[in-house]
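User: structure tokens for Flagellar basal body rod protein FlgB, please.
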Amino acid sequence: MNSFTRSIDLLQREMDVTSLRYQVTANNLANSEVPNFKRSTVNFESELKRAIDSEKEAQNAFHLTTTDSRHIQVNVPYDYRDVQPHRVLDYTTTAKANGNNVDAETEANNILQIQMQYRMLTQLTSFEFDQVSTAMKK
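Assistant: Done. Predicted tokens:
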């Protein structure tokens, strides 16, 4: 896979995750006064980093040839396209007496950060396509 395709794929996946993160944060904010409601977050970047690191490690690792699907696979990279975002429920904290752990101010701030991140990702995507357009004109 060439670097342009990989960059666009990663940007698109991150935009999807950012959209999910926005929905989860908006749900947290909407339920900030519901008794015993627990806030959720989205975990994606740490798994993505692990997958990309495993690809780099597999390039320099010792490779074994397998002739059967039942053979033990060694140093098989974790494909970044298999990484999926996960919603994580925060059961460990309680911020209010009613058992709810959502801070409306923090969630509103998170929404602003998510919106700025999404805007940045769209600009990066546009920049990638502008570079291709410029290269094609020359």
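User: Anything notable?

Assistant: The chain has one domain: 3-137.
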